[in-house]
């Protein structure tokens, strides 16, 4: 019971933190599509992984009984998402040290072309002007990167909890088998005893 509650709690945490990532990265993907430009890998990888991970978390949360029975498979998929999220966070690592409140061509540490959303960091050695919406773009990317790191931890936790769920499920099944065997044995004993009493009472004795 406690294992199921903990698993459900962390699944909800995953869903709550992945939905903002989907919304923010979808904003970038839609902007690139509108301009008929290819979405950069550092956005696309984390976006795709977040979509799949969120869908997986929702399905396994609402089908918790099936999750218990196939807990080893659930744990394996969760670990796979841990690796995929690490890849997505690694692709977006350039935003880690960004200062989204202080942009200038002279202080930018990295240069990222965000296409229709402008540029982040040092655009050119001559110090060209940055896009007006770069602060919001930077903040959204940095938040997505942070939520990605959080979900690496969350999915690792749920993979461990899934294994514990399977262990508890096996223990419960073992107890139920013992109870069924005990109940079946007591019924057989009662039936045999009743049959013997009936047989003895139905005997006729002749002198």
TrEMBL record:
It comes from the Eukaryota. The lineage of its organism: Eukaryota, Fungi, Dikarya, Ascomycota, Pezizomycotina. This is MARVEL domain-containing protein. The keyword Membrane applies. Residues 180-207 have a biased composition (Basic residues). The keyword tRNA-binding does not apply. Keywords: Membrane, Transmembrane, Transmembrane helix. Residues 174-207 are annotated as: Disordered. The chain crosses the membrane at residues 12-29, 41-64, 71-90, 145-165.
């Amino acid at each position: 019971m406690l294992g199921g509650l903990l698993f459900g709690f962390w699944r909800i945490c995953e869903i709550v933190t992945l939905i903002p990532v989907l919304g923010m990265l979808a904003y970038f993907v839609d902007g690139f599509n509108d301009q008929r430009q290819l979405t950069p890998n550092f956005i696309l990888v984390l976006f795709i992984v977040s979509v799949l991970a969120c869908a997986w978390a929702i399905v396994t949360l609402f089908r918790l009984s099936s999750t218990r029975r196939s807990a080893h498979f659930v744990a394996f998929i969760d670990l796979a998402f841990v690796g995929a999220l690490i890849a997505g966070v690694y692709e977006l690592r350039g935003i880690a040290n960004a200062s989204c409140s202080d942009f200038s061509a002279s202080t930018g540490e990295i240069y990222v072309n965000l296409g229709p959303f402008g540029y982040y960091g040092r655009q050119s050695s001559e110090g060209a002007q940055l896009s007006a919406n770069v602060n919001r773009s930077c903040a959204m990317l940095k938040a997505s990167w942070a939520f990605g790191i959080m979900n690496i931890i969350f999915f690792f936790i749920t993979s461990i909890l899934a294994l514990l769920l399977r262990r508890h499920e096996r223990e419960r099944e073992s107890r139920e088998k013992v109870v069924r065997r005990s109940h079946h044995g007591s019924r057989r004993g009662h039936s045999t005893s009743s049959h013997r009493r009936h047989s003895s009472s139905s005997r006729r004795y002749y002198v």
